[in-house]
Amino acid sequence: MRLPIIPSLVLGLCPLAQAADVQWQFALDASTSHQRFAAGSADLRSLMFTPVAQWDSWGFSVSLPWEASSGGYVVGRNLAARKLCTRLASLSDAQLQRRLARGKLQQAQIDACTAQALGSNGTGSSGTQTGFGDADMSGTYHWALTNDWMLDLGAGYKFDNGDAASGLGSGTQEARLEANLICIWSALTASVNAGVNLITQSAPQANMQDHYGYTSLALDYALLEALTLGL
Question: Deepest in the core among 20, 110, 145, 170, taking most CB within 10 A?
């Protein structure tokens, strides 16, 4: 999936604008992430543009990030693969050899984690790669259960338009289903998110399992109208 498909995803939402009750929002978010490995560190800076269409209880969005990646940043939500690389980084050469001999580890796993830690060119270069990252589209249905409790059910799809070899994408196309339960008490908001992710298409070098589940808990406290603390 290459970049020319992305504008069509955004334009695909436009027919909804003809309905009188459709509300449009546009978000621009900036973020930076840092990862540390035994062989060095990596950084990812992202500028995310997200148009959102709200129609009755439905919400539709498309996200497209512009990214700057350095040091071989590990992209993706596949926590199992990332945890494996973290564990391997803490082992000595002798420990790795013992696990290989016992069949508890494969050389391909070591090679993949080493390539991620050293960067896409395998040299540990600190050069920065820039470009569009993986685009994501999603749809959500919102239920107001009570005055304080809400439930969101959604589905989404992540494309592989980002250049995975340069650290700007995961090299995978992924579908997901998720649910988010939200409770609001005055200025405090608590939410529990759970979902399942399915790798529908993967490049050979991605070295990722085909599906996995995930959960998260978030707490936010609104100190001011424009200031919120979160955990």
Answer: 170
